[in-house]
Fold:
Amino acid sequence: MKKIILLSMALCLSFTFNAQTLDNLKITSKKYGLSKMKKAQKKVYINSFNVNFEIYKEAIDFKAGGNGGRIGGNTSSATAKAAVGLSGVDANKMQAKTNKLFENFKQRLKSEGYEIISADVAGKAKSLEKWNKATGPFMKENIPGVITCAPENYAFYYKKKGALGLGGLGIQAKLSKELGDVIIADVNLNVMFSESGNDWMKGRAAKVKIKTNLRLVNDYVITVPQKLKKKKSTLGKLFGSVKIKGAVDTYPINSMISFSYGKAGLGSQTQFNGTLKDDAEISGVMKKEKIVAYQKQGSFTPTSFTSFSNYLDAKEDRFSKNAKWITVDSDAFANGFYIACNTFMDKQLNAFFSKIK
Structure:
């Protein structure tokens, strides 16, 4: 398990804002057979409580070169890489806010008359008998640049190494039955600060654009440049050992609160899935800006006046990079994160309980 080390590098910019607002957080939900859940016994097992926040982003673009003959000429390959990271994020404050979110969730369940089933009791279910148990508090970088924070006094099960923090995904129906027809709760909260920008008019060049936009995301795909698996080249050592051809790994995520009950099957399982209508932007923490890396391809068209050195210069692969670190106020970041997650969670719990009373 990777340990999270707080970033403490010399930085370019520092933004501190006193005011914090949450713009236009609107929820939506899908409901299946909630009338059955009204009759269920008031017991809940918190199957997963995933809280993720982003502190670093890398992006890469690659433009392949080639031989176009005497008319098109020869072109070199071009690679552009951009990166942006946050400094000032305090791990202790983020852990404290995550703990508070979890306590709020549990207290709301209890205030509605629900008993929370412990992980020790749930671990006796057949569906979890070969799963591993983990206990918070901890922070872990499951996805490069994205921190998963497990709250204090929370235990859960995961199936395989590398899936820590994901909880018992895909087994809610079985688990509900095996635990005596209890309600299974799953919480996913994802706060991202970066998003990819598009540029369709880049021509013979590699270009990558990262935009900063702190928000609680609805549906989002995290992209991470793939690392070299074989021996690192000199270029790889210099630029983070990414594959020059721009290959990336993708990780789809979404913010959602769900409650499941009953066995699987049409007309049998009852479910409430609460999501966002759109991303909820968190204002007053960091400015919106763009980080761009651009690299034009070299080109060579043979004529009677060109030399072999002209050819070598044009065919040499080109690489450019642009990296930036942004300082955020630790309290503003932690508070903005908490306000967004708690507002979403509170609205979804209101919507859920209003339907099953």
User: Anything to note?
Assistant: The CA atoms of residues 31 and 67 lie 57 Å apart. The chain has eight helices and 23 strands. The first helix runs from residue 34 to 38. The first strand starts at residue 13 and ends at 15.
